């Protein structure tokens, strides 16, 4: 059986469970509300030192709803991180445009939080002081920032570690601190570029479970880059599947699974159907 065309539904059992009222995202978009980010036919071209043009991304369009969790998956070097940076206005597109809260990018600058594969905590600062760093850099209210930082430490499970230094924490705990730091200035958009890529498999699963909890508590809009298909399906409202370079949109898949999701959800046949569909899309492009 052939793969469906981009945007075409495939045979997927629908989840019956609804998210409990107490767990509705604080900033979840109402039906029909404009998305937080609209990516409209953006492309990215680089010029090499020899003067050759390299097309990294070719005419991608997608919407990111306020309060949503969107994952970008695709082969290594396909431009996932490049697309992520353009969505956050950290890198300009060569063509196309990005609309943020209904306003064309350039006319408004989103307040961002960014989490990378490495925690990048400053080794000479305590965990609390690391979380306070963006408050200081952005010159936000210090008292309110300190209160928020302490609440974030509790949210990410690091209460009691305020005076510890990064070398005293495990890799997973350092990434939790990095997530708290990214949330400290109250960003509307959280960009996560393979944040669990350097962790062992067990810690990675635990961090995915904790990130889901943090997201559901804070209601932040998250765009998440990963090479893990199962991680993308587990965490996301939608999974955006990209081809190899020049990157094109292969599919934009709604993940209709109930929340909160336990790790046991990965054994659910519906979960497997999503993961298999994504894997086939990526395998088909490699074989072409």
Structure, explained:
- With 288 residues, the chain is an alpha/beta fold.
- It has a domain at 121-187.
- It has helices at 80-87, 127-137, 142-155, 171-183, 201-218, 229-235, 269-287, and strands at 37-47, 53-64, 69-73, 95-100, 103-104, 112-115, 189-193, 221-225, 238-242, 249-254.
- The strands form 2 sheets. It has a 6-stranded mixed β-sheet, with helices on both faces.
- Strand 7, helix 5 and strand 8 (221-225) form a beta-alpha-beta unit.
- The chain is globular, with a radius of gyration of 19 Å.
- The two termini are 17 Å apart.
- Residues 1-9 and 15-31 have low confidence and may be disordered.
List the uncertain runs: 1-9, 15-31
What value does the Rg take, in angstroms?
19 Å
Oligomer description: single chain
Q: Span between N and C termini? A: 17 Å
Sum up the overall morphology in one term: globular
- What structural class results from the helix and strand content? alpha/beta
Mean pLDDT: 85
Biggest sheet, spatial arrangement of strands: 6-7-8-3-9-10
Number of helices: 7
Helix content: 25-40%
Profile the largest sheet.
Answer: 6 strands, mixed
Q: Assess the beta-strand content as a share of residues.
A: 15-25%
Name the helix and strand elements from N-terminus to C-terminus, one letter apiece: EEEHEEEHHHEHEHEEH
Number of E-type strands: 10
């Amino acid at each position: 059986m052939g793969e469906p065309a981009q945007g075409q539904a495939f045979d997927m059992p629908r989840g019956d469970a609804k998210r409990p009222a107490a767990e509705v995202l604080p900033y979840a978009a109402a039906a029909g509300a404009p998305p937080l980010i609209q990516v409209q036919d953006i492309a990215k071209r680089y010029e090499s030192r020899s003067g050759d043009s390299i097309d990294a991304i070719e005419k991608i369009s997608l919407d990111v709803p306020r309060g949503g969790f969107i994952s970008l998956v695709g082969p290594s070097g396909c431009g996932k991180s490049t697309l992520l940076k353009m969505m956050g206005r950290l890198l300009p597109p060569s063509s196309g445009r990005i609309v943020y809260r209904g306003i064309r990018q350039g006319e408004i600058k989103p307040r961002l939080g960014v989490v990378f594969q490495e925690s990048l905590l400053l080794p000479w600062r305590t965990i609390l002081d690391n979380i306070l760093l963006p408050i200081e850099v952005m010159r936000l209210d210090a008292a309110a920032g300190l209160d928020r930082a302490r609440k974030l430490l509790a949210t990410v499970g690091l209460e009691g570690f305020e005076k510890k230094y990064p070398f005293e924490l495990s890799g997973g705990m350092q990434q939790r601190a990095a997530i708290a730091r990214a949330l400290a200035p109250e960003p509307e958009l959280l960009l996560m570029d393979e944040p669990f890529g350097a962790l062992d498999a067990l810690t990675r699963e635990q961090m995915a479970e904790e990130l889901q909890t943090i997201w559901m508590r804070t209601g932040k809009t998250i765009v998440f880059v990963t090479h893990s298909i199962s991680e993308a399906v587990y965490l996301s409202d939608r999974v955006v599947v990209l081809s190899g370079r020049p990157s094109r949109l292969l599919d934009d898949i709604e993940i209709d699974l109930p929340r909160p999701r336990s790790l046991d959800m990965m054994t659910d046949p519906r979960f497997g159907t999503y993961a298999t569909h994504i894997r086939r899309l990526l395998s088909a492009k490699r074989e072409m």
